[in-house]
Give the backbone structure.
Amino acid sequence: MPGQRYDLGRVPIFEEGSTSVKITPSARVLRMLGEIEFKEWQCVAELVDNSFDDFTEIIRSGVNWPNGYKVSVSLPDSSTPQAQLVIRDTGRGMAYEQLERAVRAGWSSNDMHDKLGLFGMGFNVSTARLGKRTRVLTTRPGDTEWIGVEIDLDKIGDDFEADDITEPKDDPSEHGTKIIVDRLHRTRGDWLRRNGAALRNQLGAVYSWLLIERGFELYVGRTRVKPVRHCRWGEDRYVEHGTTKERIPAYIAIDEKLEDGLACLDCGQWQLTMTDICSDCGGDRLSERQRRIHGWLGIQRHLDKTEYGLDFLRNGRKILRWDKQLFTWRNPNGVAGNEEPEYPVELAHQGGRIIGEIHLDHVPVTYQKDAFEYGDRSWRSAVEVIRGVAPLQPKRAENAGFPENTSPLATLFKGFRRNDAGLRCLVPGDGRKPIHEETRRWAADFHKGSPDYQTDERWWQAVQDHEAIKQRGKETKTTASVPSQPDVDAVLDALGVPGDAPSSGEIATNAAPDGQKDATSATPTAKERKETRGERIARYERLSNPHPRLSRPFGHPSLGYLQVETRLLDGEEGLRDDSGQPVPVLLDQRAGNDMTALIDPEHDVFRLFGSDYADLLLVELAAVLKVRARSEWSPSRLVAAIRSESLKDGVLDGTTVGAEARELLVEVRARMARELDRTGAAGKAFTHLTRDEITATENQMIASGKVGRVRDLGQEGGFLEHVPPLALVRLVETMPAMFLDGHVFRGPYANVASDSARALSLARVTGYLSDVATHGTYAAGATAYQLQRARLSAALLVDELAGDE
Amino acid sequence: MSDYNIPPDVEAAVVTQLYAQAAELDWTHLNSTDRTRWYQSWTKDPEIGGRLIGFVGGTENIRPWLKDCPMKEYERARRGEGKYSAFITRHAATLEEVVAKTMGADWEIVEGTRAVKPLRVRIRRTGSEDEERHFVLGEEPQLKHLLWPAVIDRSRSESYPWVVCVVDPFASPLTVEQKSLHRRLENFLGVRVVYFSEI
């Protein structure tokens, strides 16, 4: 077959009686087809339609189709003549004869009622409009090669013959059809190159039903086209209308079978009477076909200025989108122009929310597939089924002499024409008014695919919240206006002010018992209203200081970590949790992994029971980490693990505590030496050392490389840096006036009147110092209790050190 | 990025979730805007970001980890390669399958010759001792990386010829221009370019 040339034009378009007049369009006419106004996306859609038609037939035939129903549109990537648009499908592919028929200008299949588009005028218009050369290649499973035809508008002459082409096949099991258009029209080619996203949106809207319900897959420029869905209320939502509480659902399914009709398979015209010859084109191929109107009407979850109205589909493709013509009543007895818009009536500037998706497979469409043949009887009867003949507005219907309109559209109109916030109209609100702007933003999130916005739950919650707030307002009003119930607390509670708030008295006089003042209108001022959690935490933060040791990452390799900033509350007000109960530790989760921990040192658990801040902080953090890491560990194991991992410096071992003690002693020695030098008492102090202590001091100095200063021992306070730690204790005991009274240690001494009080003050310092000195000398082998005592003594001794003042 | 100390069970749970969602979303064919949105959503997802946060230091580190670790490996994992391949639910053709499809049943993979980045292997005609080829698999955008090992071999006068297998994806088929470039490269470099049509 290669080398053969197709005859593109021999199609009997008009026949009359026995004389047949064959009209073969010239090549010029074929080129002129490209001048017919088709937008770029319509051209692409026209070619995609062919693939989707094929898929629909595969589904109807019940054949198993393992590779799925996929169409890819590859967009041109440059503006060179070689740049091409490729549309490819995983359909059945065509036999030679089918292909031959398919590319003929004006050819129609014998099944135009079941299909979206046809290789025919649509194919020729689209390809001619897009570029100068079109190649169609097709192959069926098992075929040895791709076969096809090349239509080159620059070369094609009046003989109307197109070249036959073939392409090798990589894999014999491949199947499908591809259409390659190149030498693209400059502006349309550029549009396709730059507008992949717009094309996806448009096709996602037009084919949404096929993509969702049939599972067809469409790719444009490597990206999957997402079906544009309706953001409508669920099928179980409803309103209760009027005094009778008539239940009107927010979703009405429509499935109306009409009488089967006789259709012409050549021109598509439905016949008014039973006949053998088409009344329109004279064709004799008439067939009885099913006529059915199906789909749904529903309520969008938000109002929109333009995006509401009904979508009408033919064979799964959307012909009309957001169509509003059914919202206008055309008086059948009126004069032209006598049209009355009926919806939206209320808050028209906010737009409308009645939507729908109606399949009219039996109604003819215009050749551009952007409108139905509105003059056709089948369209008019569809309109009757959906909206009825009477006006939607009952009053207007009555005035015009019609019975009540009970069509699906009129029913929805009745229940949902008003847009008041709350359950009555199913409109989300904030307690006072509808929140249209917000619901529109949520709808944007719905369309983006955000998981939280897919069901109508968020909208429903806002409807319920509105009712709850309104209800509270009502209760307040009632309570406040009934003098026999001067329950101040209830009123305040309803106003959101705690009963014990300092300003309660003020409000009580405003809102309570005389009933003259409308409590709901007494908008609480910022000062009076209840403090929010955020404000409370901010206040705690202002009244607190950072605790550096407990501000750090807390966690464990198996649990993950939290970044914790710990603050100690300063003041006696105390910490309260969300229910107002006093707590020793309060956690506040910040952005991401950050956490603020507030500790109240005045809480009884610390003040009376001496609990460690870290212990209770760990208990709180363990609970957070347990949930987050889904840990099965017991609370004590969690606390133990986090402590050992995150508070390593808290470990009680002899080496650590010994080092801590020696570090503190360095500070104490330096301060005592400074004091001796200041008072010139170094010599006197030296005399209090025992023989052993002097020897130990000398050895220590030599060991530290201070051999030269051994001779001057006792002349300056510097010797204190080398005396054995316990000698420091004895020096303080022997010369308390020298070191207490704020000289080195804070404790009072000289001015204390009674001896016993003096001894007590001294004993406190020397007690701590002696613990520290003991462990600074030798801490190995100490028990945990001993080490704990040493660490506490060190902490307390630090407190005893005099300030720099 | 991989120096975080994420416990294996946490990583497994997160990647399982992530890959299941990626498969559902047809990740390969998502545009960058949608991918950005999903990274944001995963960061907030208690089953994904929520489980990672304790191990990566802060929220700002979740997305880079998702992107640079499991999602960077996603396409390789779909072909059964790499440490995350166990978490894949919807597989793409493996290297073995691609070799069988493009070279025919009489070629087998020489064990121990598999290498990655680019994915390559040595193949041998069944029953023959010395008829061997290098076989490298990848997508057109990575063409230069696919060719580079062949260029290096040529410069060393290596004896095994190279078969460069370019994936011809259904959603973005190779163009005539790309294929004619491949023909020129075949001649110039002395390699063979074959195609693997993938739906």
About this structure: Residues 54 and 171 of chain B are 39 Å apart (CA to CA). Residues 8-87 of chain B form one domain. The helical segments of chain B are 8-25, 32-44, 49-56, 62-68, 74-78, 95-103, 143-155, 176-189. The mean pLDDT of chain B is 91.
